[in-house]
Amino acid sequence: MDFSVDVSLLLTLCISCLFLFLGVKNFIWKNGNLPPGPRPLPILGNILDLRGDYVKTLMNFRRTYGDVCTIYLGSRPVILVTGYKAVKEVYVDRADDFLARGDMPSFDACFMNYGLIFTSDMHRWRELRRFSLSALRDFGMGKKSIEEKIQEEVACLVTELKKMKEAFFDPRQWLSKPPCNVIFSIMFGHREEYDNKELINVIKYVFQAFRTMSSPWGQLYEMFPGFMWYLPGGHQEIFKNLNKLQHFVEKKVKQNEKTLDPNNPRDYIDTFLIKMEKEKTDPHCEFTLRNLVCSTTQIFFAGIETMSNTLTYSFLHILKRPDILAKVHEEIDQVIGRNRAPMLQDRNKMPYTEAVIHELQRFVDLLPLGVPRKTTRDLKFRGYDIPKGMNVFPLLSSVLKDPSCFPFPSEFNPHNFLDENGEFKKNDAFMPLAAGKRTCLGEALVRMELFLFTVIILQSFTLKSLVSVEELDITPDVSGVGNLPKPYTISFIPR
């Protein structure tokens, strides 16, 4: 027997056990007075507690641990915040304390903290957001001109749907093309025909990346990014598709560079390029080619994903509720008729339709996990000590289904947004895309698009399902970062 080898092996085992013990102790107790939560395993965290329906499991922790609790995604502690009052504290009341962007490993791996939306660099975020809000307004966002672009796009869609001759088809791609073209016109200065290969590919890249992020593969990567990065598997689809989207944007930027007229900017990219030239002598300037490509890709991704999935899921819900569809048709006919294009100003005269659209967003629950934040300093939150840099997940699903805020939290019911007189009723708990200082850049555009897309399409068509209403399955196909509907078929029948 080689005694020296045995002693070395024994010593190695002892040291390893000691480090493991200290690591576990540090892992569980290092953060002191954190909120309570399920006890994690070393390295694996709460993976065993998160099996099954990911979002539902997180929501259920509220029953056991209250509105604020701690879970471990792998070795990473995360504070879950649930319910309207607690989430409002994070997003609105104490916005500056929670203003930094939380870790999102899938996006972080692709964008490396560059760009507007997925950066945790506060100086970068402030500079790029201020610029982007101004640039997007210059190219129509929030103005009458963007309303006209949306109307034109939906009119093109209506023409294409009529060509279908009442055939049944999966509506996802068709409902994605018009909002994609609206983003094209703002970011790139033009629209594309619906059979354009680039348009179709971009929609595919966004959908496949977002779907994979929301799948079990994506959830696994969020827990163990350092390990999963090197392994094959479905999670690699995220990076493959985000990289394709980024390469598409890089090509667009190069095209604009060749034809740029500093005195006549055509789109967001031109405006950014002009700003880059003006600021190029500043060593701390955030207006770089890397930030341009990443910001454009991120705005593009968020804009297409939000509208595409919301519209696709919304028409499934409308299809399942012919009684609600009939009432919307009645209000459209009374207020607008069938001979003129709906306008945004019609909203004030259409309380039922406005309530239905809000209820669709609430019930679709597009971003159930919310938009993660990080604490900007050491702080006290609801009696607990939260250190600087801690990830915080405000669960939007818990707000949109909060029984203290909505009379019918678990059912699709427009009366969640109607008063006793049938008038539209605002609700502060309606925050489908988060709230506060770091809310969605294009939230106003989303509201405009949802109203005009829904009303113009329903003005022109009634809807028919290939299966019975009872057979339509409205439960999500995947539920994680986002809620995505199961594939379905629909027929648009001209009225």
Account of the protein in words:
It contains 17 helices and eleven strands. It has 495 residues and is of the alpha+beta class. The protein has a domain at 119-367 and 406-494: Cytochrome P450 (Cytochrome p450, Orthogonal Bundle). The strands form four sheets. A five-stranded mixed beta sheet has the order 1-2-7-4-3, with helices on both faces. A two-stranded antiparallel sheet has the order 5-6. Helix 4 packs parallel to helix 11 and helix 13 (289-320) crosses helix 15. The longest helix is centred in the middle third of the chain and has 32 residues, at 289-320.
In brief:
GO terms for molecular function: arachidonate epoxygenase activity; heme binding; iron ion binding; oxidoreductase activity, acting on paired donors, with incorporation or reduction of molecular oxygen, reduced flavin or flavoprotein as one donor, and incorporation of one atom of oxygen. The chain is of the alpha+beta class and 495 residues long. It is built from 17 helices and eleven strands.
